[in-house]
Design goal:
20 strands; 7-stranded parallel sheet; alpha/beta; 7-stranded antiparallel sheet; 17 helices
Length: 503
């Protein structure tokens, strides 16, 4: 067993968030690294005695040096492809170079990098080029690198699988680009995690590059039909056409699925390249049962029925709340901070109220005026925003960093406070906060506070345009929440006068 801690970068990401508990279960000391300590601390495994949490931004060399100090192996599981970072290739390049320099200085034992299968073709997508470049940069280090190259990862919550799931679920007739007949060799996330963890035990993997894939080589069209069968759907009519560019495909994916076009586009570009293993030597070194495509899909659908989604593509990215959210300094925020508050009092325990607060959004909806929320989500989607379709990772539990429709969870402190940051397209910044307060005896007050920092004249006009709707929407939301709790309302819902806002 390795004595020095294992550093996992990207620990709040899709793969990293599943690898950390697997390593802890195997008895490793783990140092989980991410850009947000709040997100890390909210994970179910955050309190494990073998775990240490560290805040790391790979573009910040100082934080990287601190995280690597005293570490043994390092898992490199970061990727800069997100809506907030359009030049992901440059960000990935700088991150990899920082890692090489910091790893050499810290004299870590080895690095393990998860990238993508690199096709033997003259032209490959920018996304695959970037993944390959990162691998080459890490390989140039004096620190030995194990480079695992995966094709499409099949798992509940992975971006590529979720794109397929939404397209097949919602489109009986699919007019697709010609890449729908490209060959791919998908691999289950369970097998990916076994390979990653297995590299720590197998010295012969050190300094080598391996392709990791499942047993099936299929086209995306075959994969779509396979999903439809396993999901109990009618066979899909798929019509490939040559005129749909990756850019147009990404916009269509953005409208039909929860995946943002800035993420969908590099993925769509990569689909035109075959993703098939060129060698399978790792199967001999780390033997395991490889799930085929149908088995992977069946397993994913079963886990979704049981509401088990450990990590989701929406988890990725830094959780960076605006400074004014915590400072409370309007002048520091750079403008007028508008605020409205509504409250009600009911005869109920705080835990009963909290149970319904944390169910908000997703399939539960917003307790009142759902059609207005859907209209707002559709408008946001058309404007290039995230819309409501992201839903939520779990129907009951919320943790810091979770996506919730077009909001992001800043804080979830049971049974007292839920604070959401708006991620829809806005001419400003906004939060929506729920506070559950015990009043003594059997009474509980539920407060709902919205804050908005406008950006210029458009921001001011937006606030005054939607302000009349607040009285209808927010009072109705509180009333609907109280009905869901099923306990009598003593007073409210009512607008709280300005100046009576809690600290």
């Amino acid at each position: 067993m390795i004595k020095r801690p294992v550093l996992v970068t990207g620990a709040t990401g899709y793969v990293g968030g599943r690898l950390v508990p697997k390593l802890l279960e195997a008895g490793y000391r783990v140092r989980a690294a991410g850009r947000s300590l709040e997100k890390l601390a909210s994970r179910p495994w955050a309190g494990h005695p073998l775990l240490e949490l560290v805040r790391v931004d790979l573009l910040d060399r100082t934080s990287l040096d601190e995280a690597l100090a005293g570490c043994g192996p390092v898992f490199y599981l970061v990727h800069s492809m997100n809506p907030a970072n359009m030049d992901f290739a440059e960000a990935d390049r700088r991150s990899a170079r920082n890692m090489v320099a910091a790893a050499e200085q810290a004299r870590v034992g080895r690095m393990i990098y998860l990238g993508g299968v690199i096709p033997d073709e003259p032209e490959i997508s920018r996304h695959l080029q970037s993944r390959a470049e990162v691998g080459r940069i890490l390989k140039s280090s004096k620190v030995p690198l194990t480079w695992l190259r995966a094709a499409m990862i099949m798992g509940s919550g992975s971006a590529s699988f979720e794109i397929m799931r939404y397209l097949v679920n919602r489109m009986p007739l699919m007019i697709t680009p010609s890449w729908v007949r490209t060959l791919v060799q998908p691999i289950s996330i369970r097998n990916v995690l076994n390979y990653l963890a297995g590299c720590l035990e197998k010295e012969e993997t050190e300094g080598r590059t391996f392709d990791i894939c499942g047993p099936d080589v299929v086209t995306y069209e075959e994969l779509f039909q396979m999903y439809a069968q396993e999901a109990g759907l009618a066979r899909r009519l798929i019509l490939p056409v040559p005129i749909l560019s990756p850019k147009l495909s990404s916009y269509w994916i953005h409208l039909v699925t929860p995946v943002h076009s800035s993420i969908a586009r590099p993925l769509a570009e990569g689909l035109r390249n075959e993703a098939v293993c060129s060698e399978n030597s790792i199967r001999r070194i780390i033997p395991q049962e490889l799930l085929d495509c149908r088995g992977s899909i069946h397993r994913i659908l079963e886990k979704r029925k049981l509401r088990i989604v450990e990590t989701d593509w929406t988890d990725a990215g830094a959780l960076i709340p605006p400074e004014w959210v915590h400072s409370g300094d309007v002048h520091y925020a750079g403008g007028d901070l508008f605020e409205e508050q509504f409250s009600l009092v009911m005869r109920a325990a705080p835990e009963e109220v909290w149970d319904q607060v944390t169910r908000i959004g997703g399939k539960t909806g917003w307790y009142h005026g759902d059609w207005l929320w859907r209209v707002r989500g559709s408008m946001d989607k058309l404007a290039g925003g995230v819309g409501l379709r992201r839903g939520r990772r779990h129907p009951v539990h919320l943790q810091s960093g979770d996506a919730l429709d077009f909001w992001r969870v800043l804080e979830a402190v049971p049974p007292r406070k839920l604070n959401l940051l708006a991620e829809m397209k806005l001419p400003g910044e906004a939060t929506l906060e729920f506070r559950v307060e015990r009043l003594g005896g059997e009474f509980t007050r539920l407060r709902m506070i919205t804050k908005y920092l406008p950006r210029g004249l458009p921001g001011l006009l937006y606030w005054y345009a939607v302000k009349p709707l607040h009285f209808y929407v927010f009072k109705g939301l509180l009333r609907g929440l109280a009905q869901a709790v099923g306990r009598p309302v003593v007073s409210g819902p009512e607008r709280v006068p300005k100046g009576d806002t809690p600290d």
